[in-house]
Amino acid sequence: MVAATNGAEQIPTETIQDIVEELLEAARYDDLDDLKRLASIGVSLDSKDSQGRTALDMAAANGHLDIVEYLIGRGVDVNASNVENNTPLHWACLNGHVELRNKFQQEQM
């Protein structure tokens, strides 16, 4: 199976899924350098995995403030919801990272 891109180039769906997984892992494990590298090669920071999770979800769930700030600063959707309708703010609070609440509230103002 092949997914279309903006140009004439075609990227296999399996490759896209691998790249999205790499993006989410970078956010989950607080690897800002890898996240920036992926963004620099054109990976959308709003990409979702098969469960609808984003890099912001992973960073918020694990309390990685620097990743959260980077992603929000790049304009990612702070209200994106996964298949269970959880948002990054839900992930942060569900995992005890209520200190991130202010970051999300500031963005929504």
TrEMBL record:
Molecular function terms, GO-annotated: ubiquitin-protein transferase activity
Placement of ANK repeats on the sequence: 51-83
GO terms (BP aspect): protein K6-linked ubiquitination
SUPFAM superfamilies in alphabetical order: Ankyrin repeat (SSF48403)
Name of a matching Pfam family: Ank_2
Protein keywords: ANK repeat, Repeat
Domain of life according to the entry: Eukaryota
InterPro entries associated with the record: Ankyrin_rpt, Ankyrin_rpt-contain_sf
Protein name as it appears in the record: Uncharacterized protein
